């Protein structure tokens, strides 16, 4: 490569059809670390605050891309003047990150910059260059891919729902929803761009927090029913490994149902989808109005000037943008709802359901269930899709909860299936509540669990009951007893959904013998699994309270789990604790239980010997 100034050099990686280029990246080694530059088009120089172009951009909020046309946020001359172009000197807003060898950000510098030497590449071309040593930009792009993978792994280890499956074309967006990538984006070039932009936005937000500078932060909170992002990601990884497309679609529907939209505001509330303490949008000022506002504030700060947006004005911008985005979301949903309604009515009359793509079939099914009218052949086609594992959660729940007439035999089959897979019942409870509430479900007000130890039985046993509340109504499940809390919850939820559907209760209790008080053997048989043995001691009241705590370290492909178990012996007041490590939670728990069991049984043996000596 020719001689270059790394601070003024960059690669623009975009779709082949992109005309509004607003970011470029560069990375290279420096000593025992790395330097990263993200150049952002300096759009603020071309759009006067309060001018006619700014007023129109404020009204439009963002560029809208449609298959037939693109409606730009800014006038075409401004887009052309502000876009980054190779072969000319471009004024930019530059983000310079200094990294250590492990990819940790050591320092951040923000301010006006220049892009003098640059290249244009598509995502696919960048991916090819990163893997082709003969390409003149190979060293830079290979290092960029390494940086992107490091940033991705760090967020995943922090619990972010960050996922890319380039084979199937599924990825998560910043709000934790599964989206399908265009075929041109299913490569490592797409990951490079995404992770560089996330890093830039995160570091800009962190800098603003340190400087106590109000900007438009991007805040996101997960719905209460969304589940642990780490567990969802593990489920995604598992489905990706199996290649089960139907499972992907079902999980995608579930995640969409519990997703909440991110919003803009001048105060920080964290971004849970990305697992970042602070985040903003600053890397697309040609296409998003909040990015342009943030750039104006950052440029003023870099030049030692006051913010062009007093706090009240910034609040007004945030409220306007949030309102417009929500209006567009509702309008889009209503448009497609009306369009789908007309199309669905036509399909329902055609009665050829086997030939329908899944989305159209799902609309016909919802249409029929809501009206209590089942077109001939629809129940049979639904059964066929169920047998082929095509039926997704929303449609399964609709038939199970509300199907009547020709659907009755299928509902009975579904009830038996749930008895074999009770873990699905909690998702159906959420569907039922969402239908009643017309929106997200709260674990604090709508779903209430009571899970506790069940005394009076041999071995560890747990009781679970679930109650749902909506409006002025409350529905309670019966209590269910099982050997572990998770299964007790599953069985309680299973009993509840069967009652909601008006079907026989397929749930069950674990077979348990009442505890017989009196002389009994204190020590558990040596053949019993260590974790189960410790639980038995806890159930007998010989050690309490028994607590298990887990932590995880290491990269995603070499994770090490640590389990710490502890309690105290009521008879002596002695505390007992142990720690175990392993590649999975279960192995770590077994190793910790093995050590804790020794402590407990030694203490018990000493106690028995003491009593014998007194005798």
From TrEMBL:
InterPro entries, per database record: dsRBD_dom, NA-bd_OB-fold, RNase_II/R, RNR_Ribonuclease
Ranges for domain DRBM: 529-602
A GO molecular-function annotation: RNA binding
GO biological process: mRNA catabolic process
Pfam families, per the entry: dsrm, RNB
Alphabetical list of CDD domains matching this protein: DSRM_SF
GO cellular component, one term: P-body
Organism: Glycomyces algeriensis
Keywords: RNA-binding
Protein name from the UniProt record: DRBM domain-containing protein
């Amino acid at each position: 490569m020719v001689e270059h100034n790394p601070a003024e050099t960059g690669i623009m990686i975009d779709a082949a059809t992109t005309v509004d280029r607003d970011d470029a990246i560069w990375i290279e080694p420096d000593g025992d670390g790395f330097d990263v530059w993200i150049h952002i088009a300096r759009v603020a120089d071309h759009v006067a605050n309060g001018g006619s172009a700014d007023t129109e951009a404020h009204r439009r909020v963002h560029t809208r891309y449609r298959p037939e046309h693109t409606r730009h946020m800014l006038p075409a001359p401004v887009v052309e003047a502000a876009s980054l172009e190779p072969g000319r000197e471009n004024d930019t807003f530059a983000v310079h990150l200094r990294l250590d060898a492990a990819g940790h950000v050591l320092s951040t510098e923000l301010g006006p910059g220049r892009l003098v030497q640059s290249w244009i590449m598509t995502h696919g071309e960048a991916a090819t260059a990163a893997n082709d040593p003969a390409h003149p930009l190979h060293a830079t792009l290979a290092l960029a891919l390494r940086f992107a993978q490091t940033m991705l792994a760090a967020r995943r280890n922090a619990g972010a729902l960050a996922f890319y499956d380039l084979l199937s074309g599924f990825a998560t967006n910043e709000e934790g929803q599964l989206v399908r990538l265009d075929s041109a984006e299913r490569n490592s070039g797409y990951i490079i761009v995404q992770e560089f932009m996330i890093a830039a936005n995160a570091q800009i937000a962190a800098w603003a927090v340190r400087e106590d500078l109000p900007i438009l932060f991007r805040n996101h909170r997960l719905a209460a029913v969304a589940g642990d992002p780490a567990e969802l990601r593990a489920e995604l990884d598992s489905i990706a490994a199996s290649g089960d497309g139907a499972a992907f679609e079902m999980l995608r529907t579930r995640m969409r149902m519990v997703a909440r939209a991110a919003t803009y505001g001048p105060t920080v509330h964290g971004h849970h989808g990305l697992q970042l303490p602070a985040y903003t949008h600053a890397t697309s000022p040609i296409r998003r109005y909040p990015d342009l506002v943030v750039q104006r504030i950052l440029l003023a700060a870099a030049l030692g000037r006051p913010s062009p947006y007093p706090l009240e004005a910034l609040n007004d911008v945030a409220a306007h943008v949030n309102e417009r985005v929500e209006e567009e979301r509702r309008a889009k949903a209503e448009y497609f709802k009306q369009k789908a309604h007309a199309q669905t009515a036509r399909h329902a009359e055609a009665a050829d359901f086997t030939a329908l793509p899944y989305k159209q079939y799902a609309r016909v099914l919802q249409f029929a269930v809501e009206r209590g009218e089942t077109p001939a052949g629809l129940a049979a086609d639904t059964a066929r899709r169920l047998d082929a594992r095509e039926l997704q959660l929303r449609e399964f729940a609709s038939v199970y909860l509300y199907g009547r007439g020709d659907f009755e035999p299928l509902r009975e089959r579904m009830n038996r299936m749930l008895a074999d897979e009770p873990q699905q019942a909690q998702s159906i409870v959420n569907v039922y509540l969402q239908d009643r509430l017309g929106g997200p479900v709260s674990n604090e007000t709508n779903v209430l669990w009571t899970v506790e130890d069940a005394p009076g039985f041999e071995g560890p046993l747990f009781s679970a009951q679930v109650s749902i509340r909506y409006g002025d109504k409350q529905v309670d499940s019966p209590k269910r007893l099982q050997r572990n809390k998770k299964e007790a919850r599953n069985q309680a939820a299973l009993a509840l959904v069967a009652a909601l559907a008006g079907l026989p209760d397929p749930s069950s209790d674990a077979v348990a013998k009442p505890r017989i008080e009196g002389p009994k053997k204190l020590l558990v048989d040596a053949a019993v699994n260590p974790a189960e043995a410790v639980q038995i001691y806890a159930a007998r009241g010989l050690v309490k309270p028994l607590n298990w705590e887990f932590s995880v370290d290491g990269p995603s492909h070499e994770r090490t789990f640590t389990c710490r178990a502890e309690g105290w012996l009521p008879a002596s007041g002695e505390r007992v604790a142990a720690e175990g490590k392993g590649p999975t939670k279960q192995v770590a728990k077994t190793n910790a239980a093995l050590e804790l069991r020794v402590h407990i049984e030694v203490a018990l043996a000493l106690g028995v010997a003491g009593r014998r000596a007194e005798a």
